[in-house]
Specification:
The complex is a heterodimer of chains A (290) and B (235).
Chain A (H helix, E strand, L loop, with lengths): L2 H29 L6 H18 L4 H22 L10 H22 L15 E4 L2 E4 H23 L1 H11 L1 H6 L4 H26 L7 H15 L4 H21 L6 H22 L5
Antiparallel strand pairs in A: 1-2
Chain B lengths: L1 E9 L1 E2 L2 E2 L4 E6 L3 E6 L5 H9 L6 E6 L2 E2 L5 H7 L1 E4 L11 H10 L8 H7 L16 H13 L5 E5 L7 H16 L3 E5 L3 H6 L3 E6 L2 E7 L5 H9 L5
Parallel strand pairs in B: 5-10, 5-11, 8-9, 9-10
Antiparallel strand pairs in B: 1-4, 1-6, 2-3, 6-7, 11-12
The chains are: A mainly alpha (290), B alpha/beta (235).
Amino acid sequence: MSYIEAILNGLTLGGLYGLFGLGLALAFGIMRIVNIAHGEFVVLAAYLGVTLLAVTPLPLPVVVVVVAAAAFALGWALQATMLNRLLGPNPVPAMVVTMGLSIVLRNVLVELYGADIQSIDIGPLQNMGIGFAGLSIGLLPILIFVISVILFISVNLLLTRTTIGRAFRAAADDHEILETLGFNRRRIYNAALGLAVALSAVAGLLLAMRSSFTPFSGVERLLIAFEVVIIGGLGSLRGCFLGGLFLGVVQVLGLKLYPNAGPLFGHLAFFVVLLVRQSNLGPLLAWGRK
Amino acid sequence: MTLLALEGVDVFYGDLQATFGVDLHVEEGEAVALIGANGAGKSTLLRAMIGLTPARRGTVTFDGENITRQRCDLVARRGVAIVPEGRRLFASLTVEENLLMGAARARPGPWTLDSVFDLFPAMRDFRHHNAAELSGGQQQMVAVGRALLTNPRLLLCDELSLGLAPKVVGEIYACFAGIREKGVSIILVEQDIARARSASNRLYCLLKGRVTLEGASDAVSLDNISHAYFGDRRQ
């Protein structure tokens, strides 16, 4: 695998990382909620996908849609039943609740599926590839990257072209005034967390097709999401996307240099970004929304 | 017909009582001014009227319905809108998007994007600007337009003149005639007493959370207002 291939692979992985970050950033940007259970939702989606593929005859694309819908419902229900009770200036209660939820989810998954490493078998697509100019890239990563880009564009359109999307942004700016215009703040929040969890779930399911996971993978996914958001800047779609690409490329390049490194290089790069952020990287990466 | 009535309204911020037994009413089509020094409880009363800080004691009645502890968005949908102190536009939205937020949950009525642009023709020119880039006067126009687009029966205006040049304040107040023509009742909170009197039918003066004066705006004397405004400390 040449370095160029590694970079391309990193980009395709980075699109997914960007989606992880986007889910976290939406919840924080709109509700000021730090969702510690974010990573567990990502893993839960992967398990749901595995189960649906095993016990139902549904084709893969339908499974992705079903998982996304289920994740939306889960996010909506979580916000409606728990997090809406904890609204206020103090972000800690919601963090504690979602942290507790993450522990519960993780252990339920161990109970149901065991602690073994799992992956999603997607048949012949797994080994298909495209060759051009002497490079060879898997068809699946390209497909996944295209889906990530489409999701990012769709979220951008949602936020700028639809009433609910504008309401998300308005709620982030000033939720009191939004209420005085006749919007039910809680319902907006329900939809926002539903969207955030659905995006992360799709990303989690897609990642499960190109790498393996266990019930304990959530922490790693959450860490990536945090790094993407911090690198990309909160409240910035493009920032999330670029932050995800950056982490993905660094991680795959690192793996090429030292195959045992795991995600080490991604985390190191994040550390470096934090260090130099003050000087010049911040404004470059943290493009604000228009 | 009485559109809004407050009876014995006590509003609290935590343990701090901000208003004491306020009685106040607004008739259909009327413009009422609330005047008083800083901290007299004017903005607090507006918050209680629209449900942002519900009254702990007393009742708020709108169009015959008790709305004292109704959720803010439901009060808004009944036809109460507010132009908040300091404008509070959605900073990451454009001017037009701010206006669209007002229109999104609107009651049926005469106000549309076009009629608001007719009220403030200058707004057409900066409709695609980001709300945070505007001057104070421009922001105030957008805040008024956003509230009007909900098609309110009662418009609460909190310190429209705050931080604006006198000429700009004049332009903002000039739109009141056009708003009242369409049957909207108005409550305006204002520090500028001359402005408050000329723009209203009746006025209430508040002092430390209590109503100290009520009367027709052109009938109460400046001397009375001054007494009600500052209390008895004056010689």
